[in-house]
Amino acid sequence: MPDADELVASALAAVRGTDVRHAERQLDHLMVGTGVADGTTAVDEALLRRLLRALGRLWLRGWQPVDVDRITGRRLDARAARLVRHAMAVQRRDQAEPVPAWWDDQLRALAATTGDDRSVLTSWAAREGLDRADALRTAVDTLALVESLPPIAVLRPPPGTSGAALSRAAGTARSGSPMLDRVRALLAKAESTTFPAEAEALTGKAQELIARHSIDEALLAAGAESGDLPGGVRLSTDTPYAGAKALLVQEVAAANRCEAVWSDDLGFATVLGWPADLVAVELLYTSLLVQATAAMLRGRAERRPGSGRRTKVWDESFLNAFALRIGERLRTATEAATDAATDADKATAGAERLLPVLAARGEAVRERLDTLFPGVTRRRLSVRDAEGWSSGTSAADRASLDVGGGRKPRQVPGRPDPR
How confident is the model at residue 419, as a pLDDT? Predict the structure, then answer.
């Protein structure tokens, strides 16, 4: 009789194949177990061991807990994602090597817990209300996915590696400051109001706070000895309208002196930059996506009767135009904030410091991009609905947001000429 590890390996090989009946037979063998006392428990333990090993390999290949959680929910379902969270919590509990604080922050945000003292699979299945057959099927599918994920850019040192014990890795956002709390409150009000003028005033104030903070951070860092590299974050660009979401990431990133790379097949965009700028990109992208979606839904209701255009085509054009117009407004606001800070710098220091500092930081971000993403390509954006384009541009004019610099990234959808 095969042991538990052999049964798991056979089930994995079967689900990766095309013979559905063979896969079901292998799952039946898992149900039976090893044929000895506690045989089913041995299967559960073998599944968990293999899942933990697979997760450990992913951390060294650039994946972070939030990334694995996101893609598991995207490609499988929420139940599978909760199983992965359960396994990550077990792994963290048993981890002896240094674990960075941001790693624990991610697990905490995912509510990753180990549950009770029963088998991980049994505990998870009980929470989900699954019988053993469905639980094993989901567990094997989850394991197959985790083992198949490709390497991605290593943005931060994972647990057990050099630099993992640092209190804050380069590029890690400091999320608990009073300034960021004020920005979040302003953006939350901007998202909830139904009055465009009020939303513009609220987001404008948020932009002002973030822009000033970003410049202050740049000048502060320039006066200190540091070997830090620019860091990075990954932002979800799931369907529907993944391309439009990636374009919005690009525009917000470019306006904040960051670079963005879209991984369409994995459902996220990677943004590279310095800590204060990455904070701005995360906050603004999240808020603008909410505002853009709400404006799109209002725009649908205002469309001319009998326009004959498909809703999806109109929506895509609307969101693309919204993203591009927002990018223009962000860059304009950024330039104004930079000019004001430069004038103040000249008056107080007697010489220009800010522009060389920003140029050096921008070059460091570009070098980081070339290191992590050599050979990135640009995709061209097509516009298929002039009415949707016009409506999206008007909606962006009513949204207004700012912060960061004005460079155009090279690696996600390019800017079209509307037609």
Answer: 39
Dihedrals phi, psi of 269, to nearest 5 degrees: -115, 135
Bridge partners (DSSP) listed for residue 231: 273
**Taking the alpha carbons of 406, 412, 415, 419 in that order, is the dihedral positive or negative?**
negative
For 238-292, what is each residue's pLDDT tens digit? 989 999 999 999 999 998 899 999 999 999 999 999 988 998 899 999 999 998 8
As a whole number of angstroms, the distance between CA 12 and CA 401 comes to 49
Contact 257, 405 (CB under 8 A): yes
User: For residue 234, which phi and psi values (nearest 5 degrees)?
Assistant: -115, 135
**Residue 125 CA neighbour count, 13 Å, CB half:** 16
Give the CA radius of gyration of the chain. 24
Q: Nearest 5°: phi and psi at 164?
A: -65, -25
**CA triple 377-381-382, angle to 5 deg:** 145
Note the helical H segments in 149-258: 178-192, 196-222, 242-254
Taking a C-beta distance cutoff of 8 angstroms, is the pair 256, 277 a contact? yes
Is the pLDDT confidence value at 149 over 50? Answer: yes
Alpha-carbon distance of 285 to 333, in angstroms, equals 16
Residue 408: its H or E element: none
CA torsion through residues 22, 23, 24, 25, sign:
positive
Q: What is the DSSP letter of 270?
A: E
DSSP code at position 62 = T
Which H or E element spans position 263?
A: strand 259-263
Of 91-105, 186-200, 404-418, the range with the lowest mean pLDDT is: 404-418
Give the HSE-up count for residue 378: Cα atoms under 13 Å, Cβ half-sphere.
Answer: 10
Paired strand residues for 261: 270
Q: How far apart are CA 389 and CA 43, in angstroms?
A: 55
Name residue, tokens 């044929």. Answer: 35
**For residue 31, which of 117, 124, 134 has the smallest C-alpha distance?**
134
Q: What is the mean pLDDT of the chain?
A: 82
> What is the mean pLDDT of the segment spanning 313-337?
84
Question: Could you tell me if 230 and 276 are in contact, meaning their C-beta atoms sit under 8 angstroms apart?
Answer: no
